[in-house]
Amino acid sequence: MCGIIGYTGNKEAKDILLQALTLLEYRGYDSAGIAVSDEESKKTQIIKCAGRVHDLEEKCKEESNHSVCGIGHTRWATHGRGNDPNAHPHPGGSVTLVHNGIIENFKELIQEFHLKGSLKSETDSEVAAAIINTLYQENGKDIKKAINEAISKLKGTFALVILVEEEPDTIYSVRNVSPIVATLCDEGAMLASDVTALCQFTNRYFVVPEYHILELHPDCLHLWNLFGVEKEPEYLVADWELNSAEKNGYPFYMEKEIMEQPKAIEATIAPRIKRGLPDFSVDKVPDSVFTKCDRICVVACGTAMHAGLVFQSLVKSVLHMHIDVELASEFMYSDPVIDKKTLLIAVSQSGETIDTLEAVKYARKQGAKSLAIINVKGSSIARESDYVLYTNAGPEIAVASTKAYTTQLAMFYLILARMAYLKKIYKPKETKAFISELSKVPEAMEAVLKKRHEIHVAAREVLEAKDLFMIGRGLDHSLLLEGSLKLKEVSYIHSEAYASGELKHGPIALITDRTPVVAVATQEKILHKEISNIREVRSRGAKVLIFVKEQFAKDLEKEFSVIKLPNARDEMMVFSASVALQLFAYYVSSDKGFDVDKPRNLAKVVTVE
Ligand code: AGP
Q1: For residue 566, is the peptide bond before it cis, meaning its omega torsion is within 30 degrees of 0?
Q2: Are 363 and 342 in contact (CB under 8 A)?
Q3: Measured between alpha carbons, how far is 492 from 466 in angstroms, rounded to an integer?
Q4: Is 2 an active-site residue?
């Protein structure tokens, strides 16, 4: 969703802002804009438009003025359409701002501040600009005082980044829930909605604490609490290389990120294996977190929730423990049963998904311990949770999640093994055997990546499809839910994943001549049943493609189109099958000529409910 950048320093601000907005494009948006301060005239110039950052770049070329301080924004519409007037930044007298989040009481504020008739856009954000300006004028042009007073009136979530004409080299910011990170580096001081925009300059950054005012100058920055006391920023170091958010020769980030998975899995598991056993001491997660709970509740959205479903199957079969996997967006409104004996596991690549964040806050109120599986260091969910396990996947830019998903899976596999070991369900030898199989996952993934041309050829068969079905049982079904989401997101083909045994209870009515069906068959104990279900759809005319564990392929390849997946212990097949389905979705999308990385209507970071 909306992206934010702010820069003040010694370089041309427009260039830095536009470059950063390009890096933030992945978040999803429908308009973009920048505002730059002019030292001499003490005026703020706003350039904005509906469309892409590229359109904004073209518009900026028409303006030749020079500035070293400015703010920028990509907007994902919530209040009002994605048109020019609604694009940020928004002016309000001497104040110009960009905003992420939703100001829920903006209508009441329009009344209170008599703004009716004076606003140029339909946005809640312009209301915030107008209010801050009014209070700024009333408070003898003391901007910090004005911000302080304004935020006491705002209900909802916000990250506000503010320029005032009288201070042309300074940027102010304040936030509630919606994130802002900031840094000081050789080029100047910067802030952004996420670290991706900063990581071309530095990997040192801090998260601006909620309800603190950040003040950026070209060579220094100050952080104030609302009582005017200066606070020391707590810097973090992203273990991402400075070029890790670049495409490195790949046509799309999604392909690059699919290809990075063997390394990403390695980075997730290696630091957490000690003497062949899973070990979370590096994360400071005590064993009591796993031994003192009698129930697990996983909350997450989309892909992250699908990773939870795989874990659920394994927890049931290995640990025989009660586990629920909840869609975070439903969780809060379903009267969830959470108590002190519940371990709440929140899963999120971005660490900013608002529904998941709210679920963690709820669990805390109920006295439950929370453990977060997160990719982005210092993100809101990470900070809100009792314990954090970082997946070390590196920045994931494509909207369609790939390496974040498989690294979340890997983390769940480590948790499962640790719990089985602690509960003495696995003996040390069995735990080591499980971990040793997990350590072979990167190699198995490499083997699938080498088959990408074969998968590409298979993908061409479904380019014209309007509907597609994915079928499998047990773990295969759980991973197909994710495979199907991937295909929907990037190819716009209507795709449904069904548990194969469920087909004859309804969905098989949709199978007609040449309906594409993708099956996954990797689980020995249900293989024969799965094959029967595949034959049932084939008998009704379906065109079937099977991703099958190599050792089961012998008979199937005589009858069906198959793509063989390297043999591994059944539980570990999820990884190679997932890579195969990601590649399948990727090739369908790229062959259809879509912008794979930026599927329509979707945002990478979902910060509204
Ligand atoms: C994945 O391809 C998605 N675009 C989406 O489902 C995503 O997984 C979901 O929005 C959750 O995001 P998070 O992991 O950042 O919380």
Answers
A1: no
A2: yes
A3: 9
A4: yes
